[in-house]
From TrEMBL:
Composition bias, Pro residues: 265-279, 287-308
Region entry Disordered, spans: 265-317
Organism, scientific name: Cinnamomum micranthum f. kanehirae
InterPro entries, alphabetized: GNK2, GNK2_sf
Gene3D superfamilies linked: Gnk2 domain, C-X8-C-X2-C motif (3.30.430.20)
Repeat recorded as keyword: yes
GO molecular function, one term: kinase activity
Superkingdom in the source lineage: Eukaryota
Keyword annotations from UniProtKB, A to Z: Kinase, Receptor, Repeat, Signal, Transferase
Organism lineage: Eukaryota, Viridiplantae, Streptophyta, Embryophyta, Tracheophyta
Protein's UniProt name: Putative receptor-like protein kinase isoform X1
Pfam families reported for this sequence: Stress-antifung
Length: 317
């Protein structure tokens, strides 16, 4: 079986975003072999000191994250048994939802991964742990994306893309360079007299503004591969992420302002990315991935367009 297919089967693709809570099927991506800066990951042994430390660390993320505005990093242990853990909630979630999502994500990591470096992404939070201090790492090896299956209507697609581009660059500036925002920004821009494109950006708030801006600008360059003419999409890494939709997916009150609770995410999406490239290989795959075909999994809802889950990763140093 090719690594691509292995990847397929290890991923639980989100077909339906229904609930703001954190359910297993909501996970956007699980990476049990999450290498940072080329450092290889090994598995830990059951009941080792590392394992014990991990079992203490992960619950401490959810018990502390809500105290500190949706972000928390900590470490436990000594030497080769030391574990570093980090959680980042989406900037607009309530403390309860953040804690809940973190709790769930941490338990999933513990039960699904056995490596010394793993990460999991949900719509509303992401949790990472490693035996390496990765807290201030600002380059990313992993990009993945999720797109809405629906395309913008032909007559509006050019205006949509233009407005989206303006919005994305504005949000990158706000996210990176307006410190009071905590490296999270949302906004909207009209693309016709009645329609808007909505955007959201976030960086891990322990990196510099410059590093955040650089990451987001790279994320923006992935849009053509990810979801150029789609009505919605996300480009995600450990360091920063972006999302756009043609309907609101965060509280309207958030546009240009601080947080309230999010509205329900709207639509079914696909997860994907370019074909995997080996460590140290080319930063970009030369070709676009073929449209992945449906390999098992739940049948699409009859009211929705057919979907085809797939996923991958790319080096990006
Ligand atoms: C972890 O990922 C690296 C790079 O992607 C790969 O070379 C290595 O074989 C992977 N290890 C496991 C156990 O999957
Ligand atoms: C780590 O464990 C997973 C299963 O939990 C296994 O698939 C993988 O090959 C192991 N990796 C190494 C390097 O032993
Ligand atoms: C780990 O510890 C638990 C309980 O402490 C025990 O049930 C389990 O068998 C142990 N596993 C290994 C691989 O030693
Ligand atoms: C560790 O424990 C898990 C379940 O608790 C089991 O699935 C896995 O095979 C064990 N691994 C080793 C190396 O004992
Ligand atoms: C984090 O949570 C743990 C309990 O899981 C607690 O012992 C610790 O004091 C908390 N740390 C902070 C900084 O609040
Ligand atoms: C969290 O990460 C930052 C950036 O590396 C670091 O300065 C800080 O000490 C870390 N916090 C903890 C509790 O480890
Ligand atoms: C937290 O999760 C539980 C079950 O996973 C759910 O019943 C509860 O409503 C969630 N709470 C919040 C605030 O999301
Ligand atoms: C990142 O953190 C490490 C260890 O805490 C420190 O040595 C290094 O200078 C930091 N790098 C940046 C860019 O802040
Ligand atoms: C949407 O556009 C993409 C890329 O142009 C195309 O591959 C896909 O078939 C289109 N989807 C629909 C539902 O028309
Ligand atoms: C989003 O775009 C689709 C496709 O062009 C369109 O059918 C739908 O009405 C749009 N939604 C909004 C809220 O503008
Ligand atoms: C982003 O900020 C830079 C530097 O302040 C500025 O030159 C640029 O025009 C801004 N871009 C947008 C889209 O606001």
């Amino acid at each position: 079986m090719s690594p691509f297919l292995l990847y397929f089967s290890s991923l639980f693709v989100l077909l339906f975003f229904h609930s703001p809570t954190c359910n297993a099927e909501d996970s956007l991506k699980v990476e049990c072999n999450n290498t940072y800066n080329g450092i290889t990951v090994a598995n830990y042994t059951n009941n080792s000191t590392f394992h014990t430390n991990l079992k203490i660390l992960l619950p401490s993320l959810s018990s502390n994250v809500s105290l500190i505005k949706g972000f928390y990093n900590t470490s436990i242990g000594e030497g080769s048994d030391k574990v570093y853990g980090l959680v980042l909630c989406r900037g607009d979630v309530s403390p309860d939802t953040c804690r809940n999502c973190t709790n769930f994500a941490s338990a999933e990591l513990l039960s699904r991964c056995q490596s010394r470096s793993s990460a999991i992404w949900y719509d509303l939070c992401q949790v990472q742990y490693s035996d390496t201090n990765f807290f201030n790492f600002s380059t990313t090896k992993w990009w993945f994306w999720v797109w809405n299956q629906i395309n913008m209507t032909d007559s509006e697609v050019e205006r949509f893309k233009n407005s989206r581009a303006l919005l994305m660059h504005e949000l990158a500036n706000k996210t990176a360079y307006e410190p009071l925002r905590g490296m999270f920004a949302t906004g909207k821009k009209s693309y016709s007299s009645t329609n808007n494109v909505f955007g959201l950006m976030q960086c891990k708030p322990v990196i510099s503004g410059e590093a955040c801006h650089k990451c987001l600008e790279v994320a923006i360059t992935k849009i053509p591969e990810c979801c150029d003419s789609r009505i919605g999409g996300r480009v995600v890494s450990e360091v920063c992420s972006l999302r756009f939709e043609n309907i609101t997916f965060f509280g309207e009150s958030l546009v240009g302002g601080p947080a309230h609770s999010p509205t329900l995410p709207p639509v079914p999406s696909l997860v994907g990315g370019p074909p995997p490239s080996p460590i140290g290989g080319p930063a970009h795959s030369p070709t676009l991935p073929p449209a992945p075909s449906l390999v098992g999994g739940p049948p699409p809802s009859p009211t929705l367009p057919p979907s085809s889950p797939g996923e991958s990763k790319v080096n990006e140093i």
